[in-house]
Amino acid sequence: MTRAVVPADLDALARAVGAALDDAGPPVAPVPVVSSAEPGDGVALVLRTSGSTGAAREVAISAAALRASGAATHTRLGGPGHWLLTLPATHVAGVQVVARAHAGHGLTAAPAGEPFTAAGFAALVRRSPRGVRRYVSLVPTQLHRLVAAADAGEPGGLEALCALDAVLLGGAATPSPLLRRAREAGAAVVTTYGMTETCGGCVYDGVPLPGVRVRLAPGTGVVEVAGPVLADGYLGDAAATAAAFVVDPDGTRWFRTSDLGRLDGRRLAVLGRADDVLVTGGLNVAPAAVEEVIAAVEGVGEACVVGVPDDEWGTAVVAVVTLTAPGTTPDGLVAAVRRRVADRLGRASAPRRVVVVEDLPRRGPGKVDRAAVTRLASGAGPLPGTTGRG
């Protein structure tokens, strides 16, 4: 019986992933596998999903899918490069950095257990070799810290970022002001969309990678992905695999995501999760759209919009936000948020309450834990149009 090996440290993980990619070693799992099922032939990785919106599953990914994903990424970015690892190698984004480094020009990793800081990132970039293309994958929270440090008079981290040939940014939605600020500084930021089931990012800046196809399910607008980057399925869960991976009559295999999207030609815009839509006063509200508007309000850092039970509205829209200047609440924050959202999206979308927290709770690499945010919002008090402290 072939079981996935669990490497003891990053060096062992890199060796094991390389061997699995070369079809010369057993499957690899960054964390112990819960399922008793045996990975199928050709499986190189067993990765646990983040579980940010539900129960985590274990995804079986073939060596062929990983190789296809890495080749497509390097083609889009301009060729193989040296990769910098700043993400935990327990989820797909971090493990993919390790896999791409095996197919590229090596890996430079941040010291294990150290928090991500602008100074630490600048030191990491200095350690990486020159004379080759250099790439990094970040989540929006990390980019925010680099930009915030630069705005506070410590530009070293952002300057180091701008020295890299490409910065893949994914794991969560990125506020437009943050993305614009980084690009204006000279950072070669590429936004990515994907999930564990698609070997991570498979759509860059809205355009599918070579070999990847995207469509919207008729009647629902749910995003579906096809191509050689798809995982084999969920380990030990045939029913979940059959529900998520569908096959057309012509044999084309698609992964049905949980996201709503819009297609403009080949360019995909992700509108948020299908199961996140809130119904308040009989009207539908898309949290992702509200979050995008709120993030542009002066003084707001990040925003997560959720629904809480309400006697009058059925569901009340609540925004949980961080501030760009922690410890201070901008005058008129609630009014500014409600006014901006109402002007852009209509009064139904305007949050009934704004809750200020030091940081949004997270689960997985950079993903906001919406269930934890909902608990914060539910416990912040019943008065509409007020600001609480989480």
Give a description of the structure:
The chain is α/β, with parallel strands linked by helices and about 400 residues long. The protein has 2 domains: about 1-275, Rossmann fold; about 275-390, GMP Synthetase, Chain A, domain 3 (2-Layer Sandwich), CATH 3.30.300.30. Helices cover about 30% and strands about 30% of the residues. The protein has helices at about 10-20, 65-75, 90-105, 120-125, 140-150, 155-160, 175-185, 240-245, 285-295, 335-345, 370-380, and strands at about 45-50, 60, 80-85, 105-110, 135-140, 165-170, 190-195, 200-205, 205-210, 215, 220-225, 235, 245, 255-265, 265-275, 280, 285, 300-310, 315-325, 355, 385-390. The strands form 5 sheets. A 7-stranded mixed β-sheet has the order 4-3-5-6-7-8-9, sandwiched between helices. Strands 10, 11, 13, 14 and 15 form a 5-stranded antiparallel β-sheet that branches. Helix 4 crosses helix 6. The radius of gyration is 21 Å and the shape is globular. About 45% of the residues are buried.
